[in-house]
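Re: weekly structure request thread

Next one in the queue (139 aa):
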Amino acid sequence: MNFVSTRIITDDIKRLVHFYERLGLSAKWYTDDFAEVSTPVATLAIGSTRTMTLFAAGAAVGGQNRSVIIEFQVADVDVVYEHLKSVVSEFVQQPTTQPWGNRSVLVRDPDGNLVNLFTPVTPEAIAKYQRAAERQTLA
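Done, posted below.
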């Protein structure tokens, strides 16, 4: 089994996709109701609430997530933080070095989803993500 993507259901797909593009990611639109933002290791799918009629109407509701954090590893979180000041309206946490070795900034996207942008900074955290990148290369 392979973990492929996380999908956000939203009432305003254009606004949400635009937010992730302003973070520096590129979106690929498949229909007016579905787009994906892909990185070398994961995909964030974004679907309009209209797509839920194809699954189970009402099973997912846009703007209601309060339990998931979407995480992106970046080269330098402090540099990204300066850029975010013109993109993000709500900072949940300013850049902080976490006990597990990542320096991170926590924001909310326009739907209220938590987004963590982080950089490994301790030797242990750096090694962890280097091993993950090596496994990805071998796959």
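The first strand starts at residue 5 and ends at 10. Residues 31 and 101 are 39 Å apart (CA to CA).
Next request, please.
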